[in-house]
Amino acid sequence: MSINSTFFAQLVVFAILVLFTMKFVWPPIAAALDERARKIADGLAAADKAKSELSVANKRVEEELAKSRNESATRLAEAERRAQAMIEEAKAKATEEGSKIIAAARVEAEQQTVKARETLRDQVAALAVKGAEQILRKEVNAGVHADLLGRLKTEL
User: Fold this and answer.
1) How confident is the model at residue 10 (pLDDT cuts 50, 70, 90)?
2) How many distinct helices (H) and strands (E) make up the chain?
């Protein structure tokens, strides 16, 4: 065999191998590579989408946190205002009760003063009658002289 025929045989075998590879081996490899490229592209797209969704979710969380902070601050301010109102109301009620107690004490003191004066007048009248008895050296009848004793009490 000559080199030409060996070369030609190797060329034919190589051509058959290339045709066989292009027909049966290359398409599944190309399909697998295309599928892998598509999966990678889908994964990158999903990662971008997830990243944007995460960003949106973070913004929503921040908004909700700000809203919650504002609501809690509003509720705290409202509670503080209510507490101040309750304190002021309690102070007003205490002042009113104190005024009522002082007024009642004044009325009671006035009544006791009037009662003490009446008692004192009765005692002074009794002393005056006794003094008059001593001066007149006879007994003064309270029933007979009730009018005179009444005028004496009012004068005192």
Assistant:
1) very high
2) 3, 0
In angstroms, the CA 155 to CA 55 distance is 101
Q: How many CB atoms are located within 10 Å of the residue 149 CB?
A: 17
DSSP structural state of residue 26: H
- Tell me the per-residue pLDDT of 112-125, one tens digit each, with 9 for 90 and over: 999 998 888 888 77
The DSSP output letter for 140 is P
pLDDT at 42 over 70: yes
SS3 label, residue 142:
coil
Cα(119)–Cα(149) distance, integer angstroms: 14
